[in-house]
Amino acid sequence: MNKTILKWPGSKAKVMGELNKHLPAGKRLVEPFAGSCAVMMNTDYPAYLVADINPDLINLYRQIQEFEKPFTALAASVFAQNADEESYYSIRKSFNDDAGMTLIYRAAYFLYLTRHAYRGLCRFNQRGGFNTPYEKQAKPFFPVEEIQAFAIKAKRATFICADFTETLAQVEAGDVVYCDPPYDGTFTQYHTNAFAEIQQRQLAQKLNKLANAGVNVVASNSETTLIKDIYAEFDHHFITASRSIGVAAGKGKKANEIIAVSRQANLGEVAA
Which residues participate in the annotated binding site? Predict the structure, then answer.
């Protein structure tokens, strides 16, 4: 398993062994919900279109893609010089209030905040301010090797800040679509726009349309009545996964998940 840059609730890193069984071969993997990029880092597609509605997440990935070495040096310095709770809140205030901050500094601060935030939670208020509290750690981890590996893989990727509607409009023949949206019945305020039942239904409608047009589509979500209903035309596979946020959070806590696979999917070896 290739580890990711971010500590990210809901990351697919620990379930890639199971998920890869259901991801078909294709010329490009399209991901409308980037998250920690665990799927990109643990598959081997010729190309990737990776999107997210969170501009800070996409900026982080672009800065590493384009400026790996200066970004790594800057981020390492931020980590080394700001190792306590007071520093965390000072960095968070600057991140939220400094409209003139350069993109590379903003990316370094974003990495710092998510690595020092409570359980790695990336949470924004309605004003767009990062508001996750500090979590005391023995020694916060600086992911230098993960940054290096990401920079190599990112040479195959295009990163865009877009919602799922805009991203799915760019799907082409031969693409594979994998969607890992905020899960039904769980915390969804990873950005200023929440993801409720109406968005779940809109996403499923678009994925069903793509599947009916012959595109290979795979989607992950909670095993709920709603999800099984809106993906009724897909094959359903069930797994359990660890939870670090929400009702099921805690040591050893597991939650049931569904992997919905379009029925015409042509499976092939794509795992890294």
Answer: 8, 12, 52, 180
